[in-house]
Design goal:
- With about 375 residues, the chain is α+β, with helices and mostly antiparallel strands.
- Helices cover about 15% and strands about 25% of the residues.
- It has five helices and 22 strands.
- The strands form six sheets. The chain has a nine-stranded mixed sheet with strand order 1-22-4-7-8-9-12-13-14, covered by helices on one side. A five-stranded antiparallel sheet has the order 2-3-19-20-21.
- A hairpin with a 5-residue loop joins β12 and β13.
- The longest helix is centred in the last third of the chain and has 14 residues.
- The protein starts with a strand and ends in a 12-residue tail after the last strand.
Length: about 375
């Protein structure tokens, strides 16, 4: 398998490591922005207790993928041949996507759901008809062109909860967000052993609780507005806000999943709707900055197994934007603030093998004299 290098663009730095055990904490956030010229931009952050060591992963058409069965081994599950080429970020050196986009502009992300995910009952006898929860995104991006196809196609397969050795011998407990070139969005979850597909008018997804609970919480923030509030008048006396930002006063700013969902919803909805897709791409990076976890701000005690039983802290391992108008997939890694740009139009979609590219390159700086 080839490992290459591709286009770098910008700049700054950091570094961390976490040990791993069953996932009990997480802070991934995703959203979708609509340009006024027919394009859509997706943004997401990836936080995880285990250093994923993600690489940019390019899967060509006709790639033969081996399914992971209930024993957690490649080849014991349902195999398939990729219909569409896809690109995205992988975990732990595996040929799987935890985030990505395909050549038809279908964009998808996998986000942790450790308190709620429960997969379909699959036994050894029908293991060969199933795939692992880790493979759902890869399967969908290499097989489907639209959200409607995802809805139909996922109902025809079984997803098992196999334990994956690279995940510390645990099951990847996740849910999935999908957005297509027409702007349709859905949330895909496996709850109490049943597939649940929910239309997503917000375009936003975070982590636990299940997605419908997040939708139900939105009305609690109906008082918030991006428009500045006038001074409060009491008995003829005016009391103005101490600064700008009064409209969104009360917007939750902590790192809890329900808080991040509301924050992403209001920030994404606040971007001017007359922005082009290119402008939305720039806006997406600014929104993502609101969810970047500085090292140490989410510190795990030694009693928390998410820190491997030795403590530690969460960080944003990487952030991405995917633009399905100009077909670019852009990544910013924790180790630096370089922005790596993958141009789908230049991809060899008929390559013979998966290609991996390491992105944790040295920080690029531009001297100013």
């Amino acid at each position: 398998m080839k490992r290459g290098l591709f286009k770098r663009v910008l700049v700054v730095s950091l570094s961390a490591s976490l040990a791993f055990a069953p996932a009990l904490s997480n802070a991934c956030t995703s959203f979708l922005l609509k340009g006024n010229d027919g394009g859509y931009v997706y943004g997401r952050t990836m936080e995880f207790g285990l250093p994923l060591k993600s690489e940019l992963t390019m899967i060509p058409r006709n790639y033969v993928a081996k399914g992971i069965g209930v024993d957690g081994k490649y080849g014991s599950g349902m195999s398939w041949t990729a219909k569409y080429a896809a690109v995205g970020m992988n975990p732990l050196g595996l040929p799987e996507l935890v985030d990505g986009m395909n050549e038809k502009g279908l964009i998808a992300g996998m986000l942790n759901l450790p308190n709620s995910a429960e997969y379909q009952a699959v036994n050894q006898a029908n293991s060969a008809e199933s795939i692992s929860s880790l493979q759902v995104l890869t399967y969908a991006l290499t097989n489907f062109a639209s959200v409607d196809e995802v809805k139909s196609g996922l109902r025809k397969i079984k997803v098992n909860g196999a334990k994956i050795a690279q995940y510390g011998g645990n099951t990847p407990l996740v849910h999935y967000t999908f957005h297509d070139a027409n702007g349709k969005s859905i949330a895909v979850e496996y709850i109490k052993g049943e597939l649940q597909i929910t239309d997503n008018p917000t375009g936003v997804m975070t982590n636990d609780p299940p997605f419908q609970d997040h939708l139900n919480s939105i009305g609690n923030y109906s008082n918030l507005s991006k428009v500045e509030k006038p001074p409060l008048v009491i008995n003829g006396a005016k009391y103005a806000a101490p600064s700008s930002g009064s409209g969104l006063h009360g917007l939750p700013g902590d790192f809890l999943s329900p808080s991040r969902f509301i924050r992403a919803l209001f920030l994404a909805n606040s971007v001017p709707n007359n922005y082009s897709t290119a402008q939305m791409n720039a806006a997406a990076w600014h929104i993502l900055g609101s969810f970047d976890i500085p090292p140490g701000s989410v510190t795990l005690p030694a009693t928390n197994p998410y820190g491997g039983g030795i403590g530690g802290f969460e960080v944003t391992e990487w952030s991405v934007t995917a633009n399905n108008k100009n077909m670019t997939y852009m990544v910013k890694m924790y180790e630096n603030t370089n922005v790596y740009v993958f141009d789908f139009k230049k991809m060899d979609v008929n390559a013979k093998e998966i290609k991996y590219t390491k992105l944790n390159q040295p920080l690029l700086t531009i001297p100013v004299n």
